Amino acid sequence: MIKITTPATSANMGPGFDCMGMAFKLYNTLRIETQESGLLIENWSDQTIPTYSNNLIYATIKDFFNLIGKKLPGLHMIQDDHIPMTRGLGSSAACIVSGLLAANELSGERLSREQLLKIAAETEGHPDNAAPALFGGITVGAMHHGQLYYSRLNVPKLNELHFAVIIPNFYLSTEKARKILPTHYTRADAVYNISRAALLTAALTGGDFELLRAAFGDRIHQPYRRELIPGFKEIFDAAYASGALGVFLSGAGPTIIAVTTSNTIRIPVPDDWILSFLKPDQNGARLEICSS
Ligand code: HSE
Fold first, then answer.
1. I need a surface site. Which of 54, 88, 117, 134 has the fewest CB within 10 A?
2. Tens digits of residue pLDDT in 30-62
């Protein structure tokens, strides 16, 4: 039996649209073994997950075997997924990364994590969830002439930060949240985001956390997506009023994340939102071979 534990991730982090992301200690755990034939998926999660061939982990494994030209074996999978789905916490990327790691191991193909990242980023269309899911910590990634370049930031004081993850009881599909974005931006908006993405990288690597409020500024996606998220302004205002260092929309939303210096800061949130404090995951997806 193979056990794969993949972290939740938050993409964009304000200005880093489609390129920056970080991993959290909240996990999707997959146990998987081959069987003679067919597919059996058990769900140990307290959320509904597809248990047939439309399961994203299974679909990823099937695509991987097609890609390498090997026959897909029968599979027994047990999924224990604590990452809420369609909330902007990288639940799909976690399934894709788990599926790729499982398929790589079961097929004996032994692709490197860098190679798997390229496949995951191509599947998702951007690397900002897949990179931290595979490598942990905070990552930046860019496609350049068909090649994926990424780096895991060295953030020496990352463990001093606490992340108030504020999740609503409603979904927002990434597709809908991407459709609402403009196709063109002004030079002023481009400069606004470039400067803040650079400032954010400097603030994190240099430990200058007082820069975070300005550094999380964004004009590429948040101003448009907030229209789809009732409570957005209230929560941003409440988080800053409570002393947050910075606040950003997690991925395509609707989850909002406030960065704080303590996990006892009280941020009042509307009734249909839940706040939990999460710590960063520094290791990324873990694969273990278990006896059962
Ligand atoms: N960067 C992506 C977006 C993350 O904001 O649309 C969600 O998949």
1. 54
2. 999 999 999 999 999 999 999 888 999 999 999
Assess whether the C-beta atom of 118 lies below 6 angstroms from ligand 1. Answer: no
Planar angle of CA 202, 232, 234, nearest 5 degrees: 105
Joined tokens for residue 269 = 């949130």
pTM over 0.70: yes
The protein residue with its alpha carbon nearest to ligand 1, atom 4, reads 251
Q: Architecture of domain 158-278 in CATH?
A: 2-Layer Sandwich (3.30)
Domain edges within the chain: 2-154+281-289, 158-278
Q: Is the CB of 162 under 6 A from ligand 1?
A: no
pLDDT tens-digit readout, 163-207: 999 999 999 999 999 999 999 999 999 999 999 999 999 999 999
178 Cα nearest atom in ligand 1: 6
Tens of pLDDT, residue by residue over 136-149, are 999 999 989 988 99
Specify the ligand 1 atom closest to the Cα of 252.
5
Our answer on whether the CB atom of 220 is closer than 6 Å to any ligand 1 atom is no
How far apart are the CA of 88 and the centre of ligand 1, in A?
Answer: 8
Question: Using a 6 Å cutoff on CB, does residue 178 contact ligand 1?
Answer: yes
CB of residue 4 inside a 6 A radius of ligand 1: no
For the 2-154+281-289 domain, the top CATH level (class) is: alpha beta
Asked if residues 164 and 130 have their Cβ atoms less than 8 Å apart, the reply is no
Residue 160 C-beta-side C-alpha neighbours within 13 Å? 11
Question: Is any atom of ligand 1 closer than 6 Å to the C-beta of 221?
Answer: yes
| Angstrom distance (rounded) from CA 57 to CA 55 | 6
Pick the closest to residue 214 from 200, 224, 235 (CA basis): 200
